[in-house]
Structure formats: C-alpha cells, structure tokens
Amino acid sequence: MYFDDVKQIREIAGRTGASLFVVPDDVEVEIPGALILKPEEKTTITIEQMRELVSKLELKQMRDLFVVIRPAEKLGLEAANAFLKTLEEPGEKVHFVLVSSRPSMLLATILSRVSLYYMRVKDDGGIHMDDKIKDVAKQLLVVKGAELVSLAEKISKKKEAPRAYALSVVGAAVEMLYKSYYITGKEAFLLKLPKYLELYDNLNRNGHIKLQIVAVLA
After folding, report:
1. What is the pLDDT of residue 123?
2. From the CB of residue 178, how many other CB atoms can be counted at a distance below 10 Å?
3. Is residue 110 within 8 Å of residue 200, measured between CB atoms?
4. Residue 50 in contact with residue 146, Cβ under 8 Å?
5. C-alpha dihedral (40, 45, 51, 52), degrees to nearest 10
6. Is there a cis peptide before residue 24, judged by omega within 30 degrees of 0?
7. What is the 3-state secondary structure (H, E, C) of the chain?
8. Using CA atoms, how far apart are residues 95 and 19, in angstroms rounded to an integer?
9. The three-state (H, E, C) secondary structure of 141-174, written as one string
10. What number of other Cβ atoms are within 10 A of residue 116's Cβ?
11. What is the pLDDT of residue 184?
12. Number of other residues whose CB lies within 10 A of the CB of residue 173
C-alpha cells in the first residue's frame, strides 16, 4: 500500500501492531512521544538496546505507545531475533513503526509480520536503482532450468565484492516483486516473494552464492 505524506504515518501505524514504512533516507519521520531505537555507538542496533526496549514495554501501557525503529535494516541479527518474540505479541496499545529505505535488507521473518507501506514520491512507479542491477534482477525473476545455473555463475563471479553484488541483485528483485504487487494487486507477485527473501537471508548469512541461488530458486 502507498501513502503520500509522513504526517500520515502515526495514523496508519495506530491501526496495527507493527508496520514498515519505506521512505527515502533524507525524509524526517517524527511521532511526538515515541520511543526511538536507532544505532548508537555501533553501526547496528544491538541486542542490549533491544533488551532495554523490551524491558520498557513490559510495563502495562494505558495509552498508545509508538516505537520507531530507524533504519530498521540496521537491526543486528541477535537484536532482530529478540525483536521477533516481541513482535508476535506487541501488546494491545504498542505500535512498532519500522522505517527503512531498503526493506529487502530486513529478515524475511520480520517482513512477514509487518504491514508494508511505500511512500509515494514524484515519478514513483519505477524501481529506482542502478540499471545494470535492475537488468540482472529482472533476469533472476524469470530465469528457468539450465539458464539458472548460468545466471548464478555470472552473479557469483563478479570481480569486485561478489556477495554485495549478489545481495544488491536479489534485493532489487524483492523490491520489484513488492512494488509490482502494490501497483497491480496481483497475488502472483506475493507468491514469488518467499523464495527471494529466503535467498537474500541465506546470502546475508554468508551462504555460497552460486549454490544458494540454484538451490533456492530451482
């Protein structure tokens, strides 16, 4: 689903326990009185920060409490796993507001538990990324049979930073599937998502690039 203004985020988030809002990095998101969880000294949101947040949420909430996590893709693996337990039962008046410009970088298990909203921007409707990455991602979405092995070989043999390249390609494919679904409403795009989310997660965990692409998408 799309929204037009960040001022709508509080109202939208108030309807559900957990939402993910995809907005550009340079757009401010402010919810008065919200708890804010963001990277501090380290480049990721740590398990210690998550435990501190969870302890605050154990107190019974008498009115709506919003928790803003930005950038949500900076949740470290331990923090993300701890967050999942809370995400399953956030509490009647607790609303998690995840904010990210790169939703495909979140764990698939988190993505499956949140309502997703894209901010509509000028000339939106396209996928804004490097054209070469986009072309390979398109191939990955439709590739079949023996061609899959060849494409996996091509992606894994990238000379510079092959894992980062593979993650960019798979992330772009995920982005295309999400946007295609929200533009067309066709569930076929959603049905393809789990495999690509699984692939991204496996590659992010240092799985063998070529073998993972073939094994997951075959």
Report:
1. 43
2. 21
3. no
4. no
5. 30
6. no
7. CEECCHHHHHHHHCCCCEEEEECCCCCCCCCCCCEEECCCCCCCECHHHHHHHHHHHCCCCCCCEEEEECCHHHECHHHHHHHHHHHHCCCCCEEEEEEECCHHHCCHHHHCCCEEEEECCCCECECCCCHHHHHHHHHHHHCCCHHHHHHHHHHHCCCCCHHHHHHHHHHHHHHHHHHHHHHHCCHHHHHHHHHHHHHHHHHHCCCCHHHHHHHHHC
8. 8
9. HHCCCHHHHHHHHHHHCCCCCHHHHHHHHHHHHH
10. 15
11. 81
12. 28
Between strands 94-100 and 2-3, the pairing is: unpaired
Q: Which pLDDT belongs to residue 180?
A: 83
**What tokens does 30 get?**
């402010």
Residues lower than pLDDT 50 in the chain: 123-125
Q: Which residue's structure tokens are 């470290």?
A: 76
Task: Provide the pLDDT for residue 124.
Answer: 44
**Nearest alpha carbon to residue 22 among 84, 85, 72, 90:** 72
The whole-angstrom distance between residue 154's C-alpha and the CA centroid of its chain comes to 25
